[in-house]
């Protein structure tokens, strides 16, 4: 057996919930998964180890994948000055089952964004982060949300190149508003992102349908023709659908129906903050029923207060007050990120939106992995990284394994 780890419990393997399941790690990889009967038949040399392993109460899920997170545990990625501060946020979410995490920055000066990109790239190199997301600075003043308007600027392809370089190949997405000149098209920020192995994430936008549709069509065409050796994914994303964008109205439709329509036709993947604060669970259910689980990804948009008490926090240049678990700007009423962990969003999706567990977990694992261009995370298949979370009957985490090691 060597350094094998054998886990027995109910097991969510794809769409199948296996009552008497077994999951076996060798080092940092999964070497067997399935029912006890199946695994012992295909791996007879493991029979003794499996039979000697006490079944655990609860259900084993794949390690979760969050592609939009600003921090947690009292620390913020946009404000981190060193690896230690950033790792506090990483570990806050890892202990709650998120084993692959994309660190999100917010709109700030170019110098700060370059510095944050370089710092976060170090954590990507070590495998502690799965990538970097720049939320701005090329966003809408009208739909800025918690983005500091002081630093919102026009789309700048050269600055985008510099941020991709600072990120050392780890930039996954950048949020930008499609109505702004040079956001899409030849010579645009979107073109630079795609050529640099990153994805445009359309959001924080006051766009009319025309710009939203044109940006999505450009994204499709540019990604389809991109060098597959560089391209991370064939799908653009939508930054937290409904939040930070012109609301849907039947005489002033804005971008939302275009985003949903494109997703339903195999285009963009829609981020949704399913924390029962940013979105009513019914809207999450409606989008899931409309576009299907492959076109949806659950995210936290979490900031420093995730896992912490109410109080005063910082999100980039902006002061934030958290009251009753809801983060808002100290000046103004804009929601300033989330305070949930991704497993909390899965729980809301299942218990309040009525989404089946397999689909909710899919949107919190496989969909994020798809954006990252990864097949070795977000699942419990043989050959994937040994990332798993044991949850109880109420979908609260009991134990977490990251790369084959239990998370303390």
Verbal overview:
This protein starts with a strand and ends with a strand. Helix content is 29%, strand content 25%. An eight-stranded parallel β-sheet has the order 5-8-9-10-11-12-13-14, with helices on both faces. The protein has twelve helices and 20 strands. The model has no long low-confidence stretch (mean pLDDT 97). It has helices at residues 36-42, 47-51, 83-94, 110-125, 157-166, 189-195, 209-225, 256-264, 281-291, 342-351, 357-363, 366-372; strands at residues 4-13, 16-26, 29-35, 59-62, 64-69, 71-72, 75-76, 98-106, 131-135, 171-176, 199-202, 237-238, 269-273, 296-299, 311-315, 318-323, 326-329, 388-391, 397-402, 405-406. By secondary structure, the chain is α/β, with parallel strands linked by helices. Helix 10 packs antiparallel against helix 11. Strand 16 (318-323) and strand 17 form a beta hairpin.
